[in-house]
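User: Capsular polysaccharide biosynthesis protein, Gilliamella apicola:
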Amino acid sequence: MYKNTNKQANAIAGWGYRLTTIKARKYAIENQLPFISLEDGFLRSVGLGLDGFSPLSLIADKLGIYYDARSPSELEELIKDKSRLVLNLNDATEAIKLIIDNELTKYNHAPAFTGFSNEHHLQNKKVLVIDQTVGDMSVKYGGADQQTFLEMLDKAIKENPNATVYIKTHTDVINGYKKGFLTSNLDNTSVILFSDDINPISLLKHVDKVYVVTSHMGFEALLLGKEVITFGLPWYAGWGLTDDRHKNIKSLKHNNRRSEATIIELFTASYILYCQYINPNTGKKGTIFDVINYLIKIKKLNNKLRGSVKLVGFSFWKKHVLLPYLNLPSIQTHFFSINKFIKNENHNKLNHKVKSQKILIWGQGKKNINSILQNEQFRTMRIEDGFIRSIGLGSNLVMPYSLVIDEIGIYFNSQQVSELELLLATKVVTKEEEQQANSLQQLLIETKLGKYNVGYEKNIKPLDTNSKIILIPGQVEDDASIIYGSPIIKTNLELVQIVRQKNPDAYIIYKPHPDVLSGNRIGKIGEAELKKYVNDIVEFVDIIHCIEQVDEIHTITSLAGFEALIRHKKVVCYGQPFYSGWGLTKDIYPNSRRKRILSLDELIYIVMYEYPIYIHPQSLDFTDPETLIKYLNNKKLEKVRQIKQFWLKKQLQKIKQILLLIIKMKFSKCN
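Assistant: Predicted structure for Capsular polysaccharide biosynthesis protein:
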C-alpha cells in the first residue's frame, strides 16, 4: 500500500522494456509525463547481478534507450553534439587506455583468455562470430531475429575461407539456462564453438575480425582497432566505423540520426556522458574513474583468489571476520580446522590423490601445518591485519577493516620476499599516484589516525630538557614480526638497553604495547628494571600523539615506525620491518635484499593502496583508505575506547562483535 504524499510526479521511470514497465509507460502517456528508461551502464560491476552484485553505473534516457534503433535516444544526440564531446576527449583517452590495459567490461568476474590451444589453426586468421541469447532486447529492438544470426554465420564462413571461424556463445546457453540463436541450431562442422566464460576484451585481443548482430562486444572490438561487421542495428553502427549489413542502416543516416564519428567520440558520448556512475567507496555520485579504479583493484583480488580456497586454522571469530573480504564472484570457500586438514591430507596421500590446492592461513601459520604446506602441491596465501585497522584492539575482538592477502610471503617476515617487498622493489609509481599518496599522508596527519586508535591525548614532552627526545614503542615479544623480522634484537628490554647505550644523553620515553597493557599478550618489563634505561613511561596515551611530540622513534619492527615516517620523524630500526631498507630509515641490521631508494610518497602509495584491501564498517563492501579513515575519525571523535576491560565485559564484547558481523553480512546479502 503506497502512502499518498499529494506530490505531482515530474516523470515516470522504469527498467528498459521489461514487462513491468508496460503499466508505467501507459501511465506516462496518459498523464503526458516523460518516461525515463533505465538500464545498466557499460561498466557495471565485478560480478553478475544475479549473484547480488549491484550496478556501479546506470543509464537514464528520457528520449528512448540506446539499444532501440526504432527511435532516437539521448546517446545518439550526445554523439552528434561535437562541442560537448571535445570538452571530454582527454578523460576519454585516459579511460580507454585503462579499460583496455585492465580488460574491463560490463561484468568483470570471468578469467582472462590466454590464447587458442588448437595448434593446427594457430597460423590462420581468426574470425569471431558472436552469438546472443534468445530474448535479448537489443536483438529485438535492433531489427534482428533468428534468420539474422544464421545469415551472419553464413557470411562469416564464406567471406573468410582461409580463416578459423569461432562462435562465442553465452555460458548461460551452454549451462542450459537460456537458448542461443546459433548454438541451438548449430549443425556446421566448419566452425569451432567457443563456450568458455572468459573476459570478452581478453578474447577480442586474440582475433582479427568480429561479426556481430547487436552485441556490445562489437564496440569493445572497435576500441581494440578490430574490423567489425554488424548485421543488426547496434548503437555504434552507422557512424562510419563498422561494416554495416542491415537493410535499414541507410535510413538511419538519411534521417540525420547517424553521421560520421570517431571511436573516441563514440566512447566519450557512451561511457562518459551517457552513463552515470556511483563512487563504490562512498556510495555517492562518482565518475568513470571512481568505477575504473575500483574494478581494477577488486578484479585483481578476485583473480588472485579465484577457484576453490581452503581456509585452515581459523577461529570461529576470524571465520566471520573474513567473510566480507571473500565476498567475490569467483571464490568458493571451505573452512578446515588444522586437525581436520591434516587428517584430510593424510587420507589423500594414502589414496595417491595429489592436486594443486589454494590454502589460506593467518599470518605465518603454526608449526604443525607449516611443515605440510612446504609441499609443492599447495599454493599458500597468508592473511594479516592491514595498517589502518580499527578503533580498538584485535585481541579484544574488534573487527578489522583492512587486511592483506599475500601469495608470496607476508610483510612482517623479512627472512623471505613478500608481495609487499616485491612491490616496493619493482613498482613504478606514477606522478598521479604520488599525489594521491601525499593527500592520504595529509589526511592521516590531520586525523591523527593509526592502526588501532586507542588511548587518549596527553602532553608527554618534558618542559625542562634540551636533549633529543626518543620514543621507544614496546612490542608483543612473541609476535611474528619479531620472531621472523628481527635477526638480533628479540625483547623490549634488549631494545631499551641498546637505545640507551647508543644515546646516553637522550631523553627516552618508553610506551608499552596496548596488547601488553591490556593483559592479552606478553612483553612486559618490570618497572624498576625499565627505569634504569628510560626517563619516562607512558601507558594509555595514543601512539600518534606520542609520535608527534618526539624527535626520533627507535623500534624493532613496530608499525609505529611507519606511522612516524608519515609524520616526518627520524626512525631507527633494530629489526627489519617492511618500511626499512628503502632509504627512509636508519637501519642497524639492514636487509641485504632491499637496495632501492624510495620517496616517502612512493612508500606510502605502495603500502597503503597497492597491498591492503579495505571494507566499509557499515556496508561491509570494499572501500578505499580515504573513506575508511574519515569514517574511523568520526567514530573516534564520538568515543575513545578504553584499553583495559574486565574479563566478563571482554567476553560480552566478543559475543556482540560476532552477532553484529553476522547480522551485517546477512543484511548486505539481502540487499
